[in-house]
Amino acid sequence: MPPVLYLIDGHALAYRTYFALASAGERLQTHSGEPTAGIYGFASVLMRILEQDRPDYLAVAFDTGKTFRNDMYPAYKATRAKMPDDLRAQIDHIRQIVDAFNLPRLEKEGVEADDVLGSIAKQAVEHGLGVKIITGDRDLLQLVNDRIIVNLAGNKLSEARDFTAADVVETLGVRPEQVIEYKGLVGDKSDNIPGVPGVGEKTATSLLERYPTLEDIYAHIDEIKGAMRAKLEAGRESAFLSRDLATIRTNVAISLDLEKARANDLNLPAVEAIFRELEFRTLIARLAKLAPGYQPPAASAAGGQLSLFGVPITQVGQSETFANHYSVVNTPEALKELQQALAGAECLAVDTETTGVDPLRAELVGISLAVVEGQGYYIPVGHRTGEPQLKLDEVRSALLPAFTDPKLPKYGHNVKYDLLALRRAGLDLAPIRFDTMIAGFLIDPASRSLGLKDMSEDYLNLTMTHIEELIGKGKNQITMAEVPIERAAGYAAADAEITLRLVGPLRKGMAERQAEKVFETVEMPLVPVLAMMEQNGIALDLDFLKQMSTELTNRLVEIESEIYRTVGYHFNLNSTQQLSDVLFKALGLLPPDPRKKTASGHFSTSADILEELRGQHPAVDLILEYRELSKLKSTYVDALPLQINPDTGRVHTSFNQTGSVTGRLASSDPNLQNIPTRTELGRQVRRAFIAAPGYRLLSVDYSQIELRIVAAMSGDEAMRQAFLAGQDIHAATAAAIQNVPLEQVTKDQRRNAKAINFGLIYGMSSFGLSRSTGLTLAEAENFVKAYFAQFPGVRRYLDEVRKQASQRGYVETLLGRRRYFPNLKSGANPNMRAREEREAINAPIQGTAADIMKLAMIALPGALQQAGLHARLLLQVHDELVLEVPENELQGTAGVVKDIMENAYPLSIPLETEARSGISWGELQPFA
DNA sequence: TCCCGCGG
DNA sequence: CCGCGGGA
Known about the structure:
Blueprint: E1 4-9, H1 10-23, H2 37-53, E2 57-61, H3 68-72, H4 85-100, E3 105-106, H5 113-126, E4 130-135, E5 148-152, E6 161-163, H6 165-172, H7 179-186, H8 201-210, H9 214-219, H10 226-234, H11 236-246, H12 268-278, H13 281-293, H14 319-322, E7 326-328, H15 332-343, E8 348-354, E9 364-370, E10 376-380, H16 392-403, E11 410-412, H17 415-424, E12 432-435, H18 436-443, H19 452-460, H20 468-471, H21 485-512, H22 516-536, E13 538-540, H23 542-567, H24 576-586, H25 607-613, H26 618-637, E14 650-651, E15 654-656, E16 666-668, H27 680-686, E17 689-690, E18 695-702, H28 705-714, H29 717-724, H30 729-738, H31 747-761, H32 766-773, H33 777-790, H34 792-808, E19 810-812, E20 818-820, H35 822-825, H36 830-866, E21 872-876, E22 880-886, H37 890-902, E23 913-918, E24 925-926
Parallel strand pairs: 1-2, 1-4, 2-3, 4-5, 7-10, 8-11, 11-12
Antiparallel strand pairs: 5-6, 8-9, 9-10, 13-14, 13-17, 15-16, 18-22, 18-23, 19-20, 21-22, 23-24
The protein binds a DNA duplex through residues 572, 574-578, 598-600, 602, 604-607, 627-628, 630-632, 634-636, 639, 656, 659-662, 664-671, 673-678, 682, 706, 758-759, 761-764, 768, 835, 838-839, 841-843, 845-846, 849, 877-880.
InterPro entries: 3'-5'_exonuclease_dom, 5-3_exonucl_a-hlix_arch_N, 5-3_exonuclease, 5-3_exonuclease_C_sf, DNA-dir_DNA_pol_A_CS, DNA-dir_DNA_pol_A_palm_dom, DNA/RNA_pol_sf, DNA_polI_H3TH
GO molecular function, one term: DNA binding
Pfam family, one: 5_3_exonuc_N
């Protein structure tokens, strides 16, 4: 194999990784607020290449200013979004890193990095080298041939992949050398290359299959029929110009001194200094491993310095390389050994393999355990491969003592899942002391990479096998039960082992961010409570839903034909785009606010727009009714029965503790936190949620908990007095603003005051307020002014929160749950800034309410048991708890629940609750 | 993927 | 403001 020259496209890679990290929710920055996502992305890819590929030669190309393409076509890249300012500033750091690695920088005035890469690549091939180009820019694919491959970054850092000529054909449908012809036809929106108007991807690939180049197409233009031919003829000039723009030059006068590109003499202290300055801690750790083991390519055959188990890090978790470090427990002897290990254990990490994603339906396939780092156990119990495995009964009695040992703390990743799966198999797990997913969430609530695989990369720098490598994906997916034990074991044991290994770094991470208190007093104790609620589930009145569905269908059919009749023709009512055309083109209605665009360029048809169009055409009212009914039918009435668990006959929602950045729970499968309540018809759906025979549903909700929290946290006297006096807070607000006695507040005044109170909680602007109230912007501004004049403490509090958010970079709830706002510190653009300021105001209010509710939920089961009551907690809807209560215990239970909720976390303002009960969620009556 | 709409 | 889900 010839030596290989690695060429990195510096800008494209920084750009791509910047957005990859941003879209993954990472807001990378240093302590002082300097954004680093682009640098980090670039540096980690560079490190990965040095560690894993050991390139013979490596150089990095950069763009410089305007290029000859702008002379050819002034609009070139004119529409491309300007590079974000904070990324631009990062490019210089990237250049420094390249220098510190002693790698050549390739740049030339007047040409793009693409052209530099193309030219150098061509020269290298002529010298007999292989070339690999690392970029984020698909255009480079045109350079691929049998000596040049391109590694293209994906939407996530881990999704980069190599493209050979065959890969290009498979992905784009054309050969690499045809990429420019393809661009000539299709153009490129992001570079503002026009192409041939009207020719899309499909047309272009099929044309290029028959005629390999533009020249061939136009030479045979008479073989092409109809409209396509006309389009091609009209776009002829544009096609050739576009192709020229898209063509990467390979004859740029630039040269590379290969000796300088030998990737073997990085200036370690310089790199480390830069990484330290940028606070790339994990990269520094990798550096230490890289430097001593790094040999000139000729002598690098020994290798092996990068490993944890003596294998390259990419292979950890794959069974063949993990083989010495896990045991399959499928004999009585092995089980005995495991029991002995458990007896001496100080902690126990647990993971389960099941046949599905719903823990209340899936079957248990195997249990993984780890008690020390570097060693894992896999206990198969449900493999359907005919291989020997222990009986579940034996496993259960062997494990139960340790699993329920009060002195043995249990760890897991999303451990609520495993708890439920184990319970269904007759096991249990307590006490649960550490959930790595929740810990990761508290360290960064905005993180979208809380999967075990992601966290393993982020915190341990270990790449794990993905489950799809075992069970496949799509329609050929099998379940874990069909995977041979030996193949499953390495993967499964690694899950428990990695979980165990994550605990240390996560504790440290939580300590740095002072998240331990919320973790230990709120989130971890909540896990078993939520598991219990999910297990309980809630009963549905199926007959009622069936009848409702029929009635809705009938009415929908009526409305639909009525709409088609008034409009004059048929169209797809459920397509918002078609609807927009019908209303604003065919019917000629004027969009009330023509600025209200949608991303696809259509006018919005949202309910508030339609609301304004009422009366202008009979179809409008009908559409609004249609929308309401079809939403109800598809989302609730027809969907809920499908979610009933056949074993229990009830629906078991899943509560996610890591779903909401503010600390609220999120409910899914089905979401029982958005069952309608605001309209009469919607409320009907709630009637389908019923109590079991002999039971009643009891609902207790906090009244105005968020405003009470504002009053307490801000200490605003006027607001506190209103609450202490037990006044209707919205009316009291209106009275204060309008300066009228409380009794004289009109409905309108109260409604506006209510809107501003809500706006307050949501950090809303005058603009938002005017939208939600129908006041003019000026009126809304005056209203806000009057509000703050009456509640000066609230204003001070809001200013304080904003200041804290921008100075410290985070805000926190009363219990210390934090939400981070790195962009406020670094002064991002005004839009983002305003958005984050609103989020910063909302987070402590909503988050404190969420914390208090969680504390109540944790305290409740013990209090009920203490009182000898048998109520079951079923649902939490942010400020409401729903329980199923034996009829004769209603009164006592209501008292306990109210007491627990009202005293969960004492504020300087009393928390009040309201209890209601009934046989269904839809017809609850206040308690006597 | 976007748009819309349900809840708090 | 924060979510989840249906449908094109």
